[in-house]
Write a structure and sequence with these properties.
The protein is of the alpha+beta class and 98 residues long. It has a single domain, classed as Roll (SH3 type barrels). The chain contains 3 helices and 6 strands, in the order αββαβββαβ. It has a 6-stranded antiparallel β-sheet with strand order 1-6-2-3-4-5. The protein is globular, with a radius of gyration of 13 Å.
Length: 98
C-alpha cells in the first residue's frame, strides 16, 4: 500500500506538493504556440488513462508546446519529446502545467 501512496505523491498535485495553486495552468487555457512544463496530473484522472499517458512519454518535468487546436473544439495537438500528440479536450485537463 505504501508504494501506491508513493506513486500518488510523485505524480499528482496534492495540496502543498508541487507548485502553488496560482501557478497551475490547464492545457485548455493556453494559447497556440505557448510552452509550459508538466508539473503533475489531476487527482481525478483514471489510472488507466494516466498509465497510457505515461507510456507515451507524458511525464512530470517535460516541456509541452501547443501546436494547434481543432476548429470545432474537440482536440488539441501538443508537441513533446520531439513528437506531436493529439488529445481530446475532455482529457487534456488531466495535465497540470506551470
Amino acid at each position: 500500500m505504501w508504494a501506491f501512496w508513493n506513486f500518488l505523491e510523485n505524480f499528482f498535485i496534492w495540496g502543498h506538493f508541487g507548485a502553488g495553486k496560482e501557478d497551475i495552468m490547464r492545457l485548455s487555457d493556453m494559447p497556440i504556440g505557448s510552452k509550459s512544463i508538466i508539473i503533475g496530473f489531476n487527482k481525478d484522472a483514471s489510472l488507466k488513462y494516466l498509465s497510457r499517458l505515461l507510456s507515451m512519454g507524458v511525464t512530470r518535468g517535460e516541456e509541452v508546446e501547443i501546436i494547434r487546436k481543432s476548429p470545432i473544439g474537440d482536440s488539441v495537438v501538443i508537441k513533446l519529446r520531439g513528437y506531436e500528440l493529439v488529445l481530446r479536450y475532455n482529457e487534456i485537463d488531466i495535465l497540470l502545467l506551470q
